[in-house]
Amino acid sequence: MLTDSTPRVLSIQSHVVHGYVGNKSAVFPLQVLGFEVDSINTVQFSTHTAYKHIKGNVLKNEEMEELVQGLMLNEVDYYTHFLTGYSRSPDSLKQIAGIIKKLREKNPDLIYVCDPVMGDNGKMYVPEDILPVYRDVVVPLADIITPNQYEAELITGMKVNDLNDALKVIRALHDKGIKTVVLSSTELGDEKNMIGIASTQGSCYKIEIPRVDATYTGTGDLFAALFLAWAHRTQNDIKLTLEKTIATLQTIVKDTYDKAREKQPTGKIPPALIELRLIQNKAVIEDPVITMKAVKIA
User: For the domain that residue 82 is a member of, what is the CATH number?
Assistant: First the structure.
């Protein structure tokens, strides 16, 4: 049985051949930050879905079951962390809930980080019947949850119009048994900045996140992976974890944008030019420079 001191993550997310979303966005940063990562790819597509042509296939539920069974039979199913992102159906999400329970039989202290990918900007991009499975089955199993504002509103059935509303939503998520609640992005800022909020056991912090004039794919997956890593490395110092996560993310996003604008100075940037520059920013992932400080709000 694998129980050495190296943290070990099982990450169940989407996969693309080209570009950075899902496991492609999460695995490299986790490895760079000292984690052993095993990954199961829920889909394997040529690119993410913002491209014109999408080719590839979807992992069937029985195929996922086989992969997990193989890990268990070979006794390589000891993990310190479990990370999930995009799930395509309610059945696959229920299956993930079953996997969490099995992994906790091997390690009761397993930390589950759930990124409940459902939509953004008031629009769902998964089937609507996924919502009750997240809300009632999966989310209560999580130790850390990283929804955006819209996803947090969906899960709680509460609207966020101001900071006070955001704190009520966070309390409602804590009431479901989640130790650490992170709103990875909210629309509570101004024209220049969004606001991110992280809350755990009596401490709640907000941080400003500069807006960039482009649409990125994979930033939520990267956020969840970085937050998992820094929560572990800082022994759950929520303020420092939020600062390190945002510092890394913003440096990568800005570098990606600047390089894209060198190639296309004006107009909408096409997907191929706005793929996150993870490899080129390996040193940033390892040691981000904090320029934006988190402020205690509760």
Answer: 3.40.1190.20
pLDDT tens digits, 46-81: 999 899 999 999 999 999 999 999 999 999 999 999
Distances (CA, A) of 6 to 23, 34, 152, 232, 262: 20, 7, 32, 11, 40
Q: Residues 93-127, buried b or exposed e (16+ Cβ, 10 A)?
A: bebbbebbeebeebbeebbbbbbbbbbeeeeeebe
Which residues have a catalytic role annotated?
Answer: 221
Residue 201 domain-assigned (yes or no): yes
DSSP type of residue 281: G
Counting the structural domains of the chain, the total is 1
| Best CA proximity match to 114, nearest among 90, 88, 134, 136 | 134
**What's this model's pTM, rounded to 2 decimal places?**
0.96
Q: What is the pLDDT of residues 174-203, one digit of tens each?
A: 999 999 999 998 888 888 999 999 999 779
The token pair at 1 is 């049985």
Domain membership flag for residue 80? yes
- Could you give the percent of the chain with pLDDT greater than 90? 87
Q: Are 21 and 14 in contact (CB under 8 A)?
A: yes
